[in-house]
Design a protein that fits this description.
Layout lengths: L2 H8 L2 E4 L7 E4 L1 H4 L2 H17 L4 E5 L2 H13 L2 E7 L7 E8 L2 E8 L8 E9 L3 H12 L3 E10 L5 H9 L4 E6 L1
Helix pairs in contact: 3-4, 5-6
This protein binds 1-O-pyrophosphono-5-O-phosphono-alpha-D-ribofuranose and adenine (ADE).
The site of 1-O-pyrophosphono-5-O-phosphono-alpha-D-ribofuranose has 18 residues, from strand 7 and helix 5.
Length: 179
């Protein structure tokens, strides 16, 4: 494990039985409170944005907003929010999905993405992959291309990576940490 991976891992707190029994919740608030760790994470994601030739960064509500916005600025790119249903005021595209604990629906402003856009999706945790898969579908339906998915932590035992393989169509899934 690299020094940066050790730093990031040390700032993620396991919370048993949240938000429901049996789930070990990966809490990133200690990482957000540590500027050295937050900067290291932002730099690592920004390098992925540059390497994949991304033209836009999409962040997934809510933790993907916190992580994705500084990545977009660091990489010199625009930031596009994918929000939970009912929050965006303009014309939207919607996608329903299941995640590790429950189900939800996400939306993007249709006008925010277009053919020719190369999107890096940023989020904190890849668990079952339901959220990431729905966001890939949403971005593709908006006419844009997903050039990568970047997550802080992948929960390997929930098999999100194989689930995303078809939707990614060769684009990389970059996880900084795998448990
Ligand atoms: O791979 P999956 O099983 O889909 O789970 C991963 C998603 O779950 C969490 O978001 P959540 O919907 O809890 O939203 P939040 O960031 O608003 O807490 C996390 O931030 C990912 O977006
Ligand atoms: N175990 C977990 N911890 C944090 N976020 C999650 N999203 C889905 N599963 C999660």
């Amino acid at each position: 494990m690299t020094d940066i991976q050790e730093l990031l891992l040390s700032r993620i707190r396991d919370v048993a039985d949240h938000p429901e029994p049996g789930v070990v919740f990966k809490d990133i608030t200690p990482l957000l409170a540590d500027p050295a760790a937050f900067t290291a994470l932002t730099d690592a994601f920004a390098e992925i944005a540059t390497r994949t030739g991304a033209t836009k960064v999409v962040g997934l509500e809510a933790r993907g907003f916190i992580l994705g916005a500084p990545v977009a600025l660091r990489a010199g790119l625009g930031f596009i929010p994918v929000r939970k249903a009912g929050k965006l005021p303009g014309a939207t595209l919607s996608q329903a999905y299941d995640l590790e604990y429950g189900s939800a629906e996400i939306e993007v402003h249709a006008e925010d993405l277009a053919a020719g856009d190369r999107v890096l999706i940023v989020d904190d945790v890849l668990a079952t992959g339901g959220t990431a898969e729905a966001s890939i579908q949403l971005i593709q339906r908006a006419g844009a291309r997903v050039v990568g998915v970047a997550v802080l932590m992948e929960l390997g035992f929930l098999h999100g990576r194989p689930r995303l393989e078809a939707a990614l169509d060769g684009a990389p899934l970059e996880s900084l940490l795998t448990v």
